[in-house]
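F.,

This is the one I mentioned.
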């Protein structure tokens, strides 16, 4: 988008104004991640307890959870959603601790064809919603220092 700005300069008695057109980038951020569940309350309890989020009011029959990062909106549905269409990738401080905690709250390991050397663990919440627990923040930083990777060409 373009924003018009008028700059005026005062120099003694003279006044000079000049119109400028400044191109600005539209700031967009991820606000909410929405997932569907056949048992929205159970799904919401898992994510609330696992992420330390809190229940927030909203204007629908969905469950809204808020905390650090994007909010989660759990929509009730009669039909089981497609697995993995959208899922969360979570970066913990301690990978093993996060996997253990998720299991204690009812999550299960999931096999989606991973090789085993990816650096993350694929799991399902108690209602079958897929998510990944990535390697710890420290391990990830060390990996990037050793090998920053390459960008996938999209053009």
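My design for it:
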């Amino acid at each position: 988008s373009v924003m018009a700005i008028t700059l005026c300069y005062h120099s003694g008695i003279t006044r000079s104004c000049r119109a400028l057109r400044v191109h600005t980038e539209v700031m967009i951020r991820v606000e909410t991640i929405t997932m569907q569940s056949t048992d929205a309350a159970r799904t919401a309890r898992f994510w609330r307890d696992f992420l330390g989020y809190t229940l927030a009011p909203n204007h629908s029959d969905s469950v809204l959870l808020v905390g650090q990062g994007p909010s989660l909106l759990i929509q009730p549905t009669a039909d089981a959603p497609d697995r993995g269409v959208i899922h969360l990738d979570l970066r913990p401080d301690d990978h093993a601790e996060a996997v253990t905690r998720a299991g204690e709250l009812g999550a299960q390991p999931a096999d989606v064809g991973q090789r085993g050397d990816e650096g993350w663990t694929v799991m399902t919440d108690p209602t079958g919603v897929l998510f990944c627990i990535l390697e710890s923040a420290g391990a990830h930083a060390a990996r990037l220092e050793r090998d920053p990777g390459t960008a996938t060409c999209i053009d």
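The first helix runs from residue 40 to 51.

Talk soon.
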